[in-house]
Amino acid sequence: MKKIIEVLPDGAALTVRSLDLILDKLHSAIQERGAFTIALSGGSTPKPLYEAIARQNLPWDKIHVFWGDERYVPSDHPDSNFRMAGEAWLNQVNLPASNIHPMPTEQADPATSAHLYEQELQDFFKTAPGEFPAFDLILLGMGDDGHTASLFPHTDALQVCDRLITVGNKDGQPRITFTVPLINQARCVLFVVAGANKRPALAQIFAPTGDDLAYPSRLIQPQAELWWLLDQPAGQDLHSL
Ligand code: 6PG
């Protein structure tokens, strides 16, 4: 595994650097395989990045957008990661509707939605049950408790190793999430983290030893590339790494 950590001076620089990296992976994937598959993170940090992507002139028909996790709310709910990415990026460009793969959240049972999305991934990547497809890039954020995607501390989702998609749990609220092994299969995993409130968790995550179940981002160790792009307030203690 190739692991790169970069600390950028501010949010604007973090957005520019993140965009550069994504565009580099996008053009390489399209050149090598004719398409680019990306899984998006939610929350607030990636919104400026999605707005920056929307301003690019890209071969949208070759780009396939998935989500690494989703809150279990309707797609038009203010908390929906799908809605945020649509408003910031996807509604602004000519990306074919068939290239946009939101996590279903309308099923009564979240487990049914998890199974449906797993089936959608298997159909898209033409993988067999139990086989983990390799996304070109999985974009991740990190909470101040060290969670990523919807893999929260000390939850059952952290232990799921035989599925692509599972049901996460935040304070009793269901989420749909990629599993650790699916994330670790990616060609490139990119964490984009901002804010001083993330510093304590980052110290735990970058410590040589620690409690993986307490800080789930420690579990993200892809076979290929792992990038951490941090703004100064989040990453100022990590320069020495
Ligand atoms: C979500 C995300 C989650 C997010 C972190 C950081 O659905 O909320 O996927 O993993 O990346 O909670 O969120 P912020 O960027 O808002 O700090």
TrEMBL record:
Residue stretches making up the Glucosamine/galactosamine-6-phosphate isomerase domain: 10-228
EC number(s) given by UniProt: 3.1.1.31
Keyword Hydrolase: yes
Gene Ontology terms, MF aspect: 6-phosphogluconolactonase activity
Chemical reaction(s) catalysed: 6-phospho-D-glucono-1,5-lactone + H2O = 6-phospho-D-gluconate + H(+)
Class in the EC hierarchy, top level: hydrolase
Pathway: Carbohydrate degradation; pentose phosphate pathway; D-ribulose 5-phosphate from D-glucose 6-phosphate (oxidative stage): step 2/3
CDD domains in the cross-refs: 6PGL
Gene Ontology BP term (one): pentose-phosphate shunt
One Pfam family per UniProt: Glucosamine_iso
Keywords of this entry: Hydrolase
Protein origin, superkingdom: Bacteria
Family, per entry: Belongs to the glucosamine/galactosamine-6-phosphate isomerase family. 6-phosphogluconolactonase subfamily.
Role of this protein: Hydrolysis of 6-phosphogluconolactone to 6-phosphogluconate.
Protein name stated in the entry: 6-phosphogluconolactonase
Source organism (scientific name): Crinalium epipsammum PCC 9333
